[in-house]
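ingest -> validate -> predict -> emit
validate: passed (alphabet ok, no gaps, 153 aa)
predict: started
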Amino acid sequence: MKRTLTSIILAVFMLAVSHVAVAAEFGTPAEAEALVKKAIAEIKSSGKDKAFAEINNTKGKFTDRDLYVFVYDMSGKCVAHGFNQKMIGKDLVDMKDPDGKFYVKERIEISKTKGKGWQDYKFTNPVSKKVENKTAYIEKLDDLIVGAGAYKK
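emit:
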């Protein structure tokens, strides 16, 4: 009986530990929002050029597991991206997710009307390399839209 009870306790402990390890493998919406606020503080203190260089660094302080910062101007041009540098400098206003959602247009609208907020869309996860559901926090800073998103698990 003691051995069975010990085995059950050990199994519950291992399950709990593995759940924590999996949860830590992925970013959360709260962490995405904090990353945006950190990037905005960096842009304000260091200036756009220096901050964008750090945001574009895929191993820098604005990339964490599957979280990364992206920055657009108010016309939809990508000016910094922590996951895909090929997007930088491109007009992405007409970008659609796999469901046909114009997510960059939505970011512009949220920024213009609310100044900040959340949006849901689908995008490629840099860790799994699969298109997944994502929620992103965006915030307007002057003529910029600064954002980061967490993939929904």
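The CA atoms of residues 66 and 127 lie 6 Å apart.
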